[in-house]
Amino acid sequence: MIEKQSKSSIIRMFHVHKNYGAVKALIDITLDVPKNELLFISGPSGAGKTSLLKLLYFGEAASEGQVLIDGMNLSRISHNRIPILRRKFGVIFQDYKLIRTKTVFDNIAIVLEAMGKKRRFVEKKVRSVLRTVGMENSIHSLPPTLSGGEQQRIAVARAIVGDPKIILADEPTGNLDEDSADIILNLLKRFHIRGATVIIATHDKELIRKTGGRVIHLKQGRIQTISNN
Amino acid sequence: MIIYFKRAIKDILDHRFLNAVTIATISIAILIASAFALFFVNANAIVNSWKQGIRIMVYLKPNSSELKVADIKRKIEGMKGVNNVRFISNIEALERLKNQMKRQSSLLDDLQENPLPDAFEVRLTDDFQNQDKVETLAARLESLSQVDEVEYGQVWLGRFTNILNLFRLTGYAMGALFFAATVLIVANTIRLVLYSRREEVEIMRLVGATDGFIRAPFYIEGLIQGALGGIIGLAALFVLFVFISSNVDKSLTSSLFAIRFLSWGAFLGILICSMFVGWMGCFLSLKQFLKQ
Ligand SMILES: Nc1ncnc2c1ncn2[C@@H]1O[C@H](COP(=O)(O)OP(=O)(O)O)[C@@H](O)[C@H]1O
Ligand SMILES: [Mg+2]
Q1: Which end of chain A is more exposed for a tag (fewer CB within 10 A), N or C?
Q2: Residues A101-127, mean pLDDT to the nearest whole number
Q3: What is the dihedral of CA B160, B28, B241, B243, to 10 degrees?
Q4: Ligand 1: residues whose CB is within 6 Å?
Q5: B159 contacts B166 by C-beta, under 8 angstroms
Q6: What's the pLDDT score for residue A196?
Q7: Are residues B112 and B243 in the same domain?
């Protein structure tokens, strides 16, 4: 039974701890995420949601325990394999992390360029994802000239452009009005239906209620409950 | 490759001021270092042309027979430090004298008989071109029978060569110093560029860019900076050279020797050096930056 589950798991965390100096951000996290799940990480601000996502794409290393992503053991990952790991993910960062001095096109294209894709393919693909998120008219804009919701959509476009196996979304509807939030959520759902594993970290109970799926509830760095919604 | 180039060009334009400072620094270093090289090349050429004149004249007693002349020639050729020996008969010597006197040569036409002796012109090997060795050799030549007189001069050139060698060493040391200083300055400006873009670099890494992908445009940037700096430095040197040589030539040097500019080979060498400086500067700062 456990064997079977681990075979189809794309993410496994086993007794993982994360400390920032004296701050214990995550305590003894054990978690299995099957392929193609839509999973919520919930909990109040400061509970450790962002920290948990960071451990997955190796934005931070675990202080203790094992993290396995799609067959890669992160406690033994070598420096030059980190980019390979990160290409499995499309991350929508809480603060978007768009390059302010580059156009929307360049911001998204860089993912494909880093993969060594051909120019013509990059051009086509970037335009296509911008259409998907409804931002094709802003292709030459600089991120600071866009509204929060628009930047969020660019961040989504960048996260999905490389067709990653896993999408991580950190407070994807954080500071958006309801309409913008719905657009983002529908995009994530659509990507889930197409076969990606989607993990959404949020403190927004309404969002979880609207969507449905497994919910991991964090409190002060520990998993408090796992429930199905 | 093209995309790296595009990114590099865009980077340079985005950081115009920093890049201009770097390129100016490289230009100045290249200007000074290659001015040194240029001076050395010319000084060397001048000394070499003078060195052609280091020789010992061996004047024979009058009425030496042909047989004896051949015998002495063989003896001189056998001596250490002798490069080649040429016999100058008194007839040839008189012709030379007439040539040199040109207008006054008619004076010589009235001579009843040739007053000049037969002579050997002895040229020395490179390692014999200093005071002590020339004197010893001259003494040995003088002791030969049939030799009337030995004459030599311009031995001071040997000492000059030593000074020039010292100069060359200083040049190398200065070149190395300039190289190191310029590399550090380039490394520092690239570090500033990197620092101003640490957020962007961090984002690129987060979306799966390899170190190589992040580095490549910086290396191209360094090479372009080096190339531009080298070209500007050498162009400045050329302008300076044209200015100086057009003033010096008329008054001083004229027919003796012509001041030359650097050869194409040296030009290319300096340019490659300068590009290497740019590359090296990048290498140092990137190594430090991406290790973090
Ligand atoms: N880089 C950091 N250095 C020190 N403490 C941190 C760092 N990042 C997060 N923390 C701390 O870890 C805890 C969990 O933070 P975080 O994962 O951001 O929570 P959440 O995303 O649920 O709001 C908080 O107490 C926070 O202050
Ligand atoms: Mg957070």
Answers
A1: N
A2: 95
A3: -130
A4: A 20, 23, 25, 43, 45-51
A5: no
A6: 94
A7: no
Q: Of the candidates B106, B123, B151, which is a domain's last residue?
A: B151
- Could you please report the per-residue DSSP string of B105-133? GHHHHT-SS--PPPEEEEEEPGGG-SHHH
- Interatomic CA distance for residues B264 and A9, integer angstroms: 65
pLDDT of residue B159: 65
How far is A128 from chain B, CA to nearest CA, in Å?
19
In this complex, do A91 and B206 lie within 8 Å of one another by their Cβ atoms?
A: yes
Distances (CA, A) of B286 to A9, A152, B194, B220, B224: 38, 32, 8, 13, 16
Q: How far is A127 from chain B (nearest CA, A)?
A: 18
Q: Do B287 and B188 fall within a single domain?
A: yes
- Domains held by chain B: number: 2
pTM attached to this predicted model: 0.73
Pocket test for ligand 1, best of A17, A19, A20 (most atoms within 8 A of CB): A20
The rounded distance, in Å, linking the Cα atoms of B33 and B184 is 16
Superfamily of structural domain A35-61+82-228 = P-loop containing nucleotide triphosphate hydrolases (3.40.50.300)
Label the pairing between strands A9-20 and A222-228.
unpaired
Q: What CATH number has the domain bearing residue B136?
A: 3.30.70.3040
Range of the domain at B237: 2-50+159-248+256-291
Which residues have C-beta within 8 Å of that of residue A137, sequence separation ≥ 6? none
Residues in chain B predicted with pLDDT less than 50, given as ranges, are: 254-255
CA distance B252 to chain A (A): 59
Nearest CA in chain A to B208: A83
**pLDDT class of A6 with cuts at 50, 70, 90:** very low
For residue A77, pLDDT over 70 is answered with: yes
Query: What is the SS3 assignment for A200?
Result: strand
pLDDT of the residue at B103: 67
Interface contact flag, A91 B211, Cβ < 8 Å: no
Is there a single domain that holds both residue B166 and residue B113?
no
Of A43, A48, A40, give the one whose Cα is nearest residue A16: A48
Number of Cβ within a 10 Å radius of residue A165? 18
Write down the residue that tokens 């290790």 correspond to: B291
Number of Cα atoms under 13 Å in the Cβ half of residue A87: 16
CA B243 / ligand 1 centre spacing (Å): 67
| B209, B92: one domain | no
**Which of the residues B11, B15, B205, B207 would you substitute to probe the A interface, choosing the one with the greatest number of A C-beta atoms within 10 Å?**
B207
End-to-end CA distance of chain A: 23
Q: Which amino acid is at A194?
A: R
Q: Is B86 helix (H, G, I), strand (E, B) or coil?
A: strand
Q: What are phi and psi of A218, to 5 degrees?
A: -100, 145
